[in-house]
């Protein structure tokens, strides 16, 4: 079987259920990432969705992913333009039978996938949970009356089992080269010096450094000191692009608690991971209504505007 894996916010090889399924099920596999043209379009304030720092972090993450995929005999190609159109074109040119991707959490991402399915109704789609702690099957019983608050959500999911991180250490799959794509850009010599370096390897280095430092035992007391690098976990940049999975973080947390002991601070790291989990599923349930002026309640809030006060 010929497959295509569409990387998005899952830029890693380790603990990537989507990649594992694709390499196990396909005889030949192509790997792509799409740079959405919309990310470079300015809004009315002159800002772009993809700024220079974020773009650098993304490019570093893609370069790291390519290095990891090479160990599996696979090649990552980067496409630019409309993601749905690019994926359809690749599927057509390579005669792909199955499209693999992580379950999209965002509205735009789900819309892009829907357009692909509409254009290629014969294409089999395998969408797996790789960005969340729990799977769709575990959350589905809650969807009809999804908890409106985090506290209710936490109580309902706290006893659910969490999967073990999966490993994709070898592949018998032949790599397909995507026509028209490019390789990830190597980090430039004039790299902007920011604290975070993108990629799976830097993510795991930070994960190991954090839990070997003992800081997890005092996290609850220090977490709001945002200017101090050692105060919070700082996993967020890598979690956002999927260089690191929340299951990997939780697995490391449990290992730390086993060796160093659990306390309120380690519990609080678990709560923070659950907050992320809550909003991942909350957005899927409510979709674009979250961003409407009237919100999910359908009731427009009372507002007022005083020009003089605004100028002041």
Short overview:
The protein has helices at 17-25, 52-70, 83-93, 107-119, 136-143, 150-157, 200-213, 219-222, 236-241, 246-260, 264-286, 307-311, and strands at 2-7, 28-36, 76-81, 98-102, 124-128, 174-176.
Major beta-sheet overview: 6 strands, parallel
Q: What is the terminal-to-terminal distance? A: 65 Å
Q: Please tell me what the overall shape is.
A: globular
Assess the beta-strand content as a share of residues. Answer: 5-15%
Helix content: 40-55%
Annotation field: number of helices: 12
Mean pLDDT: 92
Structure class: alpha/beta
Say how many strands there are: 6
User: What is the chains' assembly state?
Assistant: single chain
Low-confidence spans: pLDDT under 50, at least 5 residues? Answer: none
Order of helices and strands: EHEHEHEHEHHEHHHHHH
**Structural Rg:** 21 Å
